[in-house]
Amino acid sequence: xxDTRAATPGRFDSLRIPAYRRLWWGGMCAFGAGQMTLIAxxxxxxxxxxxxxxxxxxxxxxxxxSLVAIPVGGLLADRYSKRNIIVWAQVAQTLVSxxxxxxxxxxxxxxxxxxxxxxxxxxxxxxxxxxxxALIADIIDRDRxxxxxxxxxxxxxxxRVIGPATAGALIGIETIGISGVYYxxxxxxxxxxxxxxxLPAGRPKRRSTxxxxxxxxxxxxxxxxxxxxxxxxxxxxxxxxxGFPYVAFLPAMSEDxxxxxxTGFGIMNTVAAVGAVITTLTLANIERHKLAxxxxxxxxxxxxxxxxxxxxxxxxxxxxxxxxxxATSMTFQTLNNSAVLSLxxxxxxGRVQSLLMFSFSGFGLAALPLGLIADAVGLRQTMVxxxxxxxxxxxxxxxxxxxxxxxxxxAL
Length: 412
Hints:
Elements: H1 18-49, H2 52-77, H3 82-105, H4 111-139, H5 145-171, H6 177-196, H7 212-224, H8 227-243, H9 250-257, H10 261-282, H11 291-310, H12 315-343, H13 349-377, H14 379-404
Helix pairs in contact: 1-2, 1-4, 1-5, 1-6, 2-4, 2-13, 3-4, 3-6, 4-13, 5-10, 5-12, 8-12, 8-13, 8-14, 9-10, 10-12, 11-12, 11-14, 13-14
């Protein structure tokens, strides 16, 4: 067996491949547009309603649509051109942003429209994500796959530095405001469409002769035969569902707890992204056999960082906590994605990634009840419990990993 441990790629090794560079820049544009509209949508939802429950309700639309779209996205990625799937999903995101921008500019926007936009964007992302990750695996050889996934995650984090700061600045300019942010987001999203058109088609090597339902059942059966895959998927689901909804409550934390308004909201997002960029660059050439252990550590530290953010007595202290929240949450997510892709066979990448995306359906669905709890008992108290729950679960997940290690962990 080839010893992949000795072949450690350079930190930016994957960017030497032209197709990956185009995919990377296309992702930068798509994610940048998404980060800008995420800031605008969160602030607009809070401005229209003034409640934590409303912030959660916007995300629940994302979660509900994902429940339907995720299995479809994974199935499509394993049956059709991944490039075309990505293009059409990005077109949908462009149209949604342009539509919301026009409604805001005309003074016709209502809260239910934000939920509808969240539904469409949730479906688009749920279809796009499995194809995008699976296309990375088509373009990059397995020895550099972890490096490619980390660099892809780094591009997301760079946009989280630029996007929130840009959106916050534009929202504060009276002649631009929220509608202008959405228009700029739509333009950048359209640029991502143009970049994606030049990618390889990413068609499957063999077309399935089974029905779509049979393909889905085959994917589930494949995962059940791999206990470590099951563990990775379960860990992702619980941590993302319980811990990641913190992002929905940042507008309320900035406004109600620290009195910093939209500017503080943008700064908190930017600081989290800086932490994530630092860690993704540091770990970009991590050896593949270390993925599972590092993932467990990142999840545990994320829970601790979330508790620290929740009890921060001042805005400056909260920013320090956000640096670690951003670093640990993105490290956990990226390591999980890398481990899943490294473990799964290529012909199952789309369906396995769609199962991984169910985590973010749970994230969207959990945001509303957590928002209702935050309105009833307090935001700080709710987020403390969220962080403690992540810590407790990750301690159990690490014991699970160690039980599997002697016999079932793959020889990465």
